[in-house]
Structures are given as structure tokens and as C-alpha cells.
Amino acid sequence: MSLITTLARMEAVRDGRAQPLTTVRHRHLAERPLVFVPLTTAGEAGAPLGALVGTDRERPRLLVVPQPRDRDLRSAFLAELAEEMLPYVEGFAGDVTLEERKETDPETGKKVTVQVELCAGAPQLLVPSAAGVSYVRLLGRSMRFRRTAEQDPDTPHPAPPRVPLLGRWLTHFGERARVPGSSLLLPMTELLGRHWATGQSNLEDQHLGALLAWIDPPEGLTGAEAALRAELARDAAGQLLHPPAGPATDPAFDNKLLAPAVTRHDAGLPGAAEELRALLETQLRPTWEAVWRGVDLLRALPEGERAGERWKRDRWSYTAHRDRVRAGEPPQPRRDDAVTAARKLAARETAQAQLEAQEALDDPLVMAGRRLAGEAFAGEVTEVVMEYTEAKVPRPRPLVTVRTDDGPYLAEGAKVHRVLPDGKAQPAEFVGPVPGDPGALTVRLTGGMGRGKVPEPGSVPEKGDRVCWTLFEHAPRGGPELPDPERTPWTHGGPPGEPAAELPDPVTAEDLL
Amino acid sequence: MTRSPDSRPTARPATPAPATLRQRLAELRGPGSAQRPLDARALAALAANPGCRRRVLLDGAGVDKSALARALGAPAAFGQSQFAITRGHSFEARAKADGGTELVRLLHEQLRDGAPAPAPGSVDVPDLTAGGPEGRTARTALALREASAAGRWALLDHPLLALPVAGAPAFLEPDAVVVHPDGTWTVVEIKSFPVIDGAADPGKVGAAARQAAVYVLALEELAARTGDGDPARVRHEILLVCPKDFANVPAAGLVDVRKPRATTRRQLARLARVEDIAAELPAGTTFDLCLADDGRTAGRPAEELAAAVEAVGAAYAPECLAACELAFHCRARARAEGAVAALGRGLRGELGGLTTVESVLAAALDRAPAGEEAGVPDPTVVALRRAAALRAEALDPPLTGIEAACR
Description:
By secondary structure, chain A is of the alpha+beta class. Chain A has 12 helices and 15 strands. Chain A has 2 domains: about 5-325, no CATH class; about 375-470, Thrombin, subunit H (Beta Barrel), CATH 2.40.10. Chain A has helices at about 5-15, 70-90, 130-145, 165-175, 190-195, 210-215, 225-230, 250-265, 270-300, 305-325, 340-360, 365-370, and strands spanning about 20, 35-40, 50-55, 60-65, 95-105, 110-120, 125, 185, 195, 375-385, 400-405, 415-420, 425-435, 440-445, 465-470. In chain A, the strands form 4 sheets. A 6-stranded antiparallel sheet of chain A has the order 12-13-14-11-10-15. In chain A, strands 4-3-2-7-8 form a 5-stranded mixed sheet, sandwiched between helices. Chain A has a two-stranded antiparallel ribbon with strand order 1-9. Chain B has 3 domains: about 35-80 and about 280-345, no CATH class; about 80-265, Lambda Exonuclease, Chain A (Alpha-Beta Complex), CATH 3.90.320; about 350-405, no CATH class. Helices cover about 45% and strands about 10% of the residues of chain B. Chains A and B meet through helix 1, helix 3, helix 7, helix 8 and helix 11 of A and helix 5, helix 13, helix 14, helix 15 and helix 16 of B.
């Protein structure tokens, strides 16, 4: 946690409400996101209990598994979930724009420009917390290898028709969520925590109710008081007034309300199924409302300039998965081969570097953190001296002196970057501090001034301008290319060979799942 | 191995605390309240926060912290869903089915040391029933000695081990201990979180390893005290058994617990001794709740109990919320005092001598001396002021518009 964040948390303690960590919203928020609030059965992996799902805030769809140990009831739940989610997920597949992309022609080996489809939009899934993201991944894993009766008539417990497909999509969402700055699947706690500092610790921020209480406390209460109520307040029967955001339920709810209701359902008592639905809705509805309240709060922030660029990459990712599904490719394997895994890691590292750079460029408050860390400096231009290269055609290499209070970690000749009015990055080299004038630093512009002898207008700052130089690149690129999987070196297990068809999970007679 | 002086090697399973200490601890609990035994989970939590004298004393004295927290008006939200308990029990029963052969087979499969596989029915399962914790630990020690000498596989189902902690014995009950034909011992930990595609939640595996490390320590202690006195007979790899994928089939893996074992051993050795803490308490301090006849309502006013609890210092950090029944009370106190550690354990180190929110904000906003009078400005204060200035500038940009410049 940077000192600026720490300070914001302390201010939150002092003022009794959360303090901004950003001046803009750093994640794209879709116009029509799909909110998914799942609940799971304690102690069982992949045994959903119920969910609220939908794009309409007023009319979510309630899905319930009255007896989580009944395989058929679970299948029915997943079928309903697929019915609700897939039309939304697939709804963005048709509307495409054409983009140009350079590709290597397999015959000639030359780079050629090809036109490819890019979906104009993409689905966005919102879940309450990071645990919800893990649960989406778990659901995806539990569904994608299942076989339908159509695929395999002999399969003992066939999956409903669209369930394996939903499993593949949820797996894709889960994988994409691991890429820093991506927005296909977002946990609300993390989204809010990125934009506001509360007067509690990171651990306590994982509680969506408490986090919202700090950001938007009800009239007459401080954030701390409201958060405490969200965490602990119970009614006369010992039930939490603000049920946990899931997917885990409160043990008191399980033991006092849910277990007796499930027993009544098992006994076949009339009305037991309706009772269970009503019970689960009491647990899900507050979280559903909380997620949407979070959406409202985030929408009030203007979107960062470069968030759209990252969303475009999400659209690419969505389009690519759409193509894989259309091409009839098998579901994602249980384990990636060495090259795919290395590629994913490299892509995430690049995405992390890009996210850090872009957030700082979009947001002076984030940039302030980088300046404090010595990774950027801002100040007023005090002097500009025109100099030129000694080539046959001299090129401008002006020296710009900046007075700053920042203390960047700079060595002579270090590369620095700034944003030009047209949005491009301008490179420069650090020359050194001005002797006898503390706080004055000189840099030499090395590019971004056009092709001529005279720099293009606006590309060289003038005396009195305020400029901000960063020590980090504005569009960091990834490392060298990785070999194709067929050329995996022996150090990494050698070529993976023909991918073996992934078998569905074996069904055992005694397992409850 | 670090040992407290009163655990000299003797044949007795656990050295009882001196009578005076036992008496003092009973007074702290209050007459009529039974001592709550320490379990491995509590020990692992205790070792995670060794600086907390309050927890050491309350756990060492066996005070019922849940009841105490309730009486203080800050009840903890601990509890287990009966679904999880049912599932845990059914899985453990499944893993220990057919006389332990399945479990030993899983262990043998993981070892890959070329030893012959256990034949069905060749696993001894000694009877460990005995009266009282002392009796059970003695029975366990005896069974371990006999099984080690027998040169056969043996499974000890729920043995009871004793480990002296901060001067008082703690009784620990691992899920199982397997005795190998070569006389070495392996701790078995059965958990009901799944292993999916060969990977389990690292946080849960870590917690299981820390818990198992406590059992390994207790076994080493036992090995040093009995038989040939060789603690090396306790293997440092424990067998973690979990459900495989989405089924109820057990899958096992060996987990090296040398690191958590070393950490736990060091932390337990650091634990201030209960005696010393108890001796520092003002005379007459007690955590007796004076429970009413219903066994729940505390007869003592909350303020009086709070004063008793305050008599011994705590080291609250947000991690306590997941590990200690008293955490909400300690958090309320830490917040009331404005302690920076309530916002995260790391902050204490980052902020140097500034331990309260108020002092940090005062330093940042230039209302307190930065130590310039001594000639050397405090680097923390300098950095804080810079951070505050940068934050203020970004939130309320000057007319020249640094915002525009940064874009």
C-alpha cells in the first residue's frame, strides 16, 4: 500500500467516510451488465444452492436447488442458469466491426494486412466479491467436461443440452478475470476498493456490505458505525441483517433456517419448495441490491480515457472465444501446456505494466503516487534551449529545464516520457540536475517533434508550461515471442503431442455430487 | 528442539503445571468453569500472533473466549454449518474405511520408496480408548511405542498428544498418525476442501500445513521423551487427504511442513509464559463471568470484564478477525485508540514511531513538529508531508492544471 493510499485510509477514519483513491473510473462498465449472485452449499465443492441472475435490476431471476445433494436438481439449476446466461453472452456475437490486423502469410512468410471481425460489444459479468470470481471459475470447471445425451448416449448422468457450453464460457470469463485491467468478469468489492479508501483494512473491505457502508453511509451514521452494523447486526432470531455476499452462507442461517427447510422438503411437505425459495431470496436479495448500488456509485465517476482501450482488448478476447466455440474446438484443457501457460503469464505481466502506466496517465491522483515513489516528476518549465544534432540534416534536440518538488530516481541518460497534446508519447533523456539550483532538472527531447529541422508546433514545451515526465513507458510491450507449442524445448517437457481428448469427470456411485 | 524447563524428559505424558499456577489460572477462569483445552487450530493461530499477551493468557488459562466476547458485547461470528460438518465427517469416514488400508495405501502410493504395498488386512488399528485426556495421551504413547517396534503398518485413529505451551499443557488430536514398518511416523490430516485437477486452494493447504506442523511438534516431543528418544522418527512430510475433484473419492498429497514447523516452534518458544503474564496482573483480576443458572447470561457487568481484559495487553491486527473470538472487542478498542495497526499489520512498520491515526494525520498536515528541533527531520514525517501535498494537489488541482500536463 503506498503512502498516499495509507493517508487516504487515515482521512477516511477521521472523516467517518471513504475517501477517493482515483479521480476517474479505471474500469469499463457495460451499459447492460449481467449481475450474478451465487450461493453455495457449505462443505461441498460445486454444489450450488441458489442464485440471483439477470440484467434487469428490478426483475432478477431466482434459481434454487432445494436439495443440493440431489444430482438431478443440480442439473436442473445449471440448465436454468444456462438458459438465463447464454442468450446474454451470445447476444454480442453477431454485431461485428471489421478491424485490420497484420498477419504472417503461411505461404510466402510475408506480413500481410487482413481484415478480421471484432465484436462491437462484449458481455460483462458482475459478481459481489473475489470469492464470486473463484466460484464462476469452479462452476465453469464443473460443467465444461460434462457430456450431453446427444454427445454421448451412454453417459450415465447426461448434462442438459447447453450446460457444457455455459461451462466453457464461464471458464473463459474466469481465465480472463486473471488478466489485470480486464473487465469481462468483475468482483464488486475489488472495483469499489480500487476507487475508494475506507477507514478499515483490506481484509475487512472484502465484505461488500461494510465496504458500501463506508463509501455511502446512511444518514446520521459514520462509515465505521454503518460498517459494524453491516458486519454483525442480527435480528431477534439470531440471523444477520446483512447476509454475507456469498457464495458461502452464514452458518447460523444454515443451521437454524436452511437445514430444517431442506428436511421438510425431503419429507415432501407441501409448500416446502416455496419456503426454500423465499428463504434463499432473503439471503440473496440484499447482495443483489448492494451490487447495483455499487454500479450506481461507479457510474457517477467519469470513465478514464484509456479504459476504453482495455475494454477493446476484452472485446478481442470475447471474439476469439466466440470463434473457438464456432470452430467446434474442444473445451479448455484441465491443464495448459507449457507454452500456453508461459504465454498467459507473459500476457498478464504485460497487461499489469500497461494498466499501471495507463491508470497513472489517466488520473493525476494515481500519478501522484508514482511521483511520490520517484517514478515520475512534474513541474514548471523554466528554460528551453534549442540544440541540434550534428548530422548532415540537423534534427532538433532541445534542452528543457523543469523545476520540480519531486524526487525522481534518475540516472544520467535515463529515458523519460511525457504525453503530447495529440496523445502520443514523447521520449527524452535525462541530462542532469542544474548545478547550484536544487529542484531544477534538465532533459533533452529526443523525438516526437516531426521530421523537419523545425519542431512541429506544440511538440516542444515553452517556458512557464507545466509538464509531467514519467520514468516508465506509456505503452510497455511484452517480452520476446514464445515458440509454437510444437517447438516446446525439452526443458519444458518437449512438444505436448496430440492433445488427448479430455474425459468427463468419472461419476462414482457413492459421491453426493 | 526448544523446550520449556518444566518439560524435562520423563515418562509422564504431560508435566502438570505447578499447583500455584494451576490455582491462579483456575481463579482467572472463575470457580466452576471448566478449562477449555487448546487445540491445534488455536495453537496455529496463537503462533501467528505471538505478541498478543491477551490471547496467550486467555488461551493458556483455558478461558471460554466466545462466552467472554458475548459478555463484552462483541460476539464473534464463528460457527460451522451443519452441512459442512456432515460432509467433513462423511468424508473422513470414507477415507478411513476398510480398517485404514485405504489410507495406508494412499500414503504408500505417495511415498514411491519401493517398499512393498500393504496387503489388505495387514494394517494394525490399535484401540486408543482411555479415560480422560491424560489417560488417552498415555495410551497413545504406549500404542506408538508398540506399533513402532512391531515392524508393521499401523493406523492410530484420533490419537491424543500433549504439548506444553507457555507453561500449560495443550492436548492435540490429529485425524490420524500412521506408523511405518520402519518405525517412523506420519501425521495424516483429512480435510474436506477439494483438490481440483491436482490443485487445491493454497490458503487452505497452508492452514492445514500449519495445523499439522503443531502435531508434528507434539509427536517429536513425544518421540524425544519415550523409546529411543529419536525425534527423527517423525517424518516432516504429512499426508493431506482431500476429496478429488467433485467426487467423494479421497486424493492424497505429501506436504512438507518443515517451514511451518520451524515457524511454529520459534513462535511457541517466544510466547511469553502464562505464569509471567499472570504474575503481572493486578491482584484479584479474574475473567469469571459469574454465569447465571441458564449458563449463558453473564452476571458481571461488561465494564468490569472489559477492565479485566484491558489489564493484559493485546496486539490486534485485522488477521485476528478470522482467528480469535475476542477480535471484535480488540478491534473496537484499537479503533477507539486510533491505532494504525487496525488498518493493516504492515502499516506499523511503514509509519515508524507514529502509532495513532491522529499523530499520522497531524504529522502529514504539518501540525506537529517533525523533529526538526533535533536537527534531523524524521524521514517518515517528510514522506508523509510530501504524500499529503501530492494528494491535495491531485484532488484540488492548482490553476495551472497539472492535470492537463499529465495527460
